[in-house]
Here is the input.
Amino acid sequence: MLAVSDLHVRHAENRDAAADLRPSHPGDWLIVAGDVAEQVEDTVATLASLRERFAEVLWVPGNHELWTRPKEEGALRGEPRYRRLVERCQEVGVLTPEDPYPVWTGVDGPVVVAPLFVLYDYSFLPPGTSTSEEGLAAAHAAGVVCTDEFLLYPDPYPTRQAWCDARIAESQRRLDEIDPAMATVLVNHWPLTRYPTRILRYPEFSLWCGSTRTADWHVRYRARSVVYGHLHVPRVTWEDGVRFVEASLGYPREQKARAERGMVTEPLPRQILPLPAPEPDPLAKYDKPL
Here is the structure.
């Protein structure tokens, strides 16, 4: 079982990287943890191409897939946009958060693989703030405001927090239905715990990175591994004995900067199962990693 995230194929270099993703074995699965592209058809075309190569492809949405730009006259927004992406993925044989959770029966299995769509609710507060309102005010004052504020619409929900509430409730309902004897691999675009955001160069950005309400899911739902993206900081960390894999490709400029600083990470896609031997965090020595 392999994973990649944040392919951002609107960049030519990243399109080439996506085209080069190949299984090492005919039975390999590929997890794609969001931010493939910003246009529905670009996202679906990339995933369909990957599905031709891998035995199974699982996708969860990132914030970029959910953006609706002003020039997209008549384009779907919010929940309807997400549902359209789900329908198109299902047409090309790609599993989504709306499908029955598949079971990995390879080495280190059986394991239920749970692709999730859990947004953020502004509860990852920056230092010195105690409410989401204070946190957002601090972010605006610092000039660190996620583009989601302008392009990610929550329709038909009144706010992104309300949409996040609904997604957390639905995800918990389905996760609670998993046989308690089964281990899991949890997949979400946004981190499920606050820990990975502590190395962000701009701590205010953590507001758009998750929810404190998912902090114990890796324990509660018996995770062998958790896969996420969004931060563009590829690394492996461990929490409560669970392996967390940030599997981002990220933007070309970020890839170049990491290479120039000698920040060597495992090539993509990252191996999720079988569980590899514990590896050191490649970013542990950096106070302000890219």
